[in-house]
What we know:
two-stranded parallel sheet
Amino acid sequence: MPNPLETLKALGDQLRTTIGEELDLDALRRQEPARPLEELLAELDALPGLESVKEQVRALVAFLRVQARRLEAGLPEVATTQHLVFLGNPGTGKTTVARLLAQMYRSMGLLRKGHLVEVDRAGLVGQYVGLTAVKTDRVVRKALDGVLFVDEAYALSREAERLDFGDEAIETLHKRMEDNRHRLVVIVAGYPRLMRRFLESNPGLRSRFSREIEFPDYSTDDLVEIFRRFAAEAEYALGEGAEESLRAIFHNAERDESFGNARFARTLFEQSLNAQALRLGAGDVQQLSNADLMELTPEDLVAGARSLGEHPVPPRGGWFNRRR
């Protein structure tokens, strides 16, 4: 027979955990002042590539500001939902832009906290009847006055006749979006083809989302710039001929639906560091200069790419007569 004291203690621990997750009092105490909108827009503009995304975000911000000014002037406001759909392959900056948008909404006075809560199917769907609604409600409460970002949202929709609790999560989320329409912005994201199917999976779901923003894959130039930023942040530099090798790797990488984009660039950077460490570690490490420790060579990059299953080869007509 279980000890009543141990059962009570376990219940208390569970309640403290739940309350801590939902209220996050420490986060409320340390919340910083809202950042100026122009500063946030400048940060958006500084992101590599994504020109069409930047244009659409600026259009959305301009619309919201004009509507707010109309309301102040006593003119009727166009009733429109602020929930968004982000369409794009992995690593195309969707989470980064969602975080900036959350702060922009706060800067414009549309959301009180402007924080981002990121979740996927596992964070919304339970394993037993009734648990999914509880989990989804908990996530929504945590996201109130901010943005709820549902990544790979298409995974919530049921396939064929398979028994699944994802539909319950969609129904619950749908209701909470209406109940808390002035305190919650929901952004659903994922592969374009699968997301369009998801939006058709529930009557009325598409009407809850006013805009779709499509995130294109990064070009070779964009990926080189992203790699350079990762390197600069960690105080590494490309050695002679390394940029040419880097371009070859990105140029020849297979660009299917699963291509990681910026994630691929980060992983390549990390694997290149491993290759550099093996190269430098073969000699007297104590004699290495700062320049030696910072330099990534073409050989480091190619070795890093091969560890990821890539086999960079120069395109016909020279290394970079062709570009994406």
